[in-house]
Predict the 3D structure of the following.
Amino acid sequence: MKKIFLPLLLVLFLVSLNAVESKITSVTVYSDRAQITRSATIYLTKGEHKILFDELPQSIIQNSIQADGKGNAVLRDVTFKSEQFAQITDEKKKTLTDELLELQDKKITFNDKKSQAQDEKRVVKDILTKLTSTTEKTENVELDPEKWIKMVEFYRSKQETLDKEIRNTDKLVRDVNAEIDKVKREILVMGQQDYKYKKMVEVLVDVQKEGNIKLDLSYIVYGPSWKPIYDIRVDSQEKTMHLTYKSNIFQKTGEDWVDVDLKLSTAKPNISAQPPELKPNYISIRKYRHVKQESLEDRYAPSMSNIVEKKVRHSYDGPVDGGAALSIDIDIPESTVKSGFTSVVFDIDGSNTIKSDNEQHLVTITIQEFPAGFRYSTIPKHSQYAYLKAKVKNDSEYPFLPGDTNVFLDNNFVANSYLKAVAPTEEFWTFLGVDEGIKVEYRFVKKFDETGGIFVEKNKKIFEYLIKITNNKKTQEEIVVWDQLPISQNEKIKVKLIEPSYKEDTEILKINEHKYIEWFFEPKAGEEILIPFKYSVEYPIGTQIKGL
């Protein structure tokens, strides 16, 4: 036995295990996950070595692990491991328990202080009641107004002081209750998670020549996300839009990203790369038959496929990659935007730090300035205001993803809005709020029935409105006015536009399939525009019309 055991022991010791300190160097964040790259440099002698990357995030996706590097070595194997170990120590539990007791004592002290203030309020009130109550002995006592004024002032001042003290104490109690709840939750989590799994990756390298080896380990973790947000600042005098394209990044992976090369990707890895396939859709006549009563054991027994799947997931400990020579890094010129066939990657300038606190971390993607055209839009039927909006062409190389916007006009905050997706070279509109320099009036003129005699079988109602637009600004402006015709859903109900006269769409007048009417005007400074709007609705006598 000894002749067999000793050679095996020597072989095992020939492969050394080296736990390395690694640093996160780059992160690419997607909509619901992130790709992390860790780098480590280690001096190794000739021969085979196992390099251990320890303390990896709990949310790591096992099949995403890849290794690469630089140096005179061959990459032989990459193995993922998960070991269970104790997470919570008695010392940690004791520290939290002591903190909880201290907070509870503090709460008792605050409550005592509040009770004392309330008792003092009652005493002061009782004193005042006794002084102001009338008895047989005090009926003929002459009241000194000056003393009473001082007494009332004292009472009021004392009550205000005590009320303020009670309010402050209530706030302290609320704060300490929040701290108590937090500590209780932490203690509860400790009880539920006495153990956790330690995630590790072993990289087996065959060093051809002694020296420094640089290893890069990349993996994907679930949880991190980013979403766009915009600051839009419009200058009405210069006719420009200043757009700051930013991103809110969230992550709680358990490891801080400190001074990393940060990228944001528009790719959606959670969606399959190919569309789902159609399957034959068979239909037939339903046939009823007796169904065997299902037992509880049959109902809740797991399927064999589920059992096998679980075993495979928990027992996997094989290589992810192997046999590849460590590659030599190739320098690639950095660009701010890298476009692919289906996605875009924003490379954020400089080094960035994103802590694992699930708080929003704001980074700037780009700042752009565009020439802007202005136009007003109004729907007087619903709101007698003119709403200013700016038209901009995205002549940058950046696609704008859908996101919330903070809109400013001439350095004044206007509103929070929402920007829809805008591709490069695409035009888009942004509303900038109400401008009362354009006056809008909407008047109902009249409604009347038109009949043709006693033998007429139809009713005809005519509706008449007048829209008035006044340009009180010092410049000529553009404005679009909207209204609508009722849409008949019955062939016996006829709707006819009387004014304005319409034959086909023009630059000034358009009507779409929803019977929305659009007028376009360019009123000069001080100009007043009158827009008559008149239509009729014809329907059989005795019919009740809904929607008029």
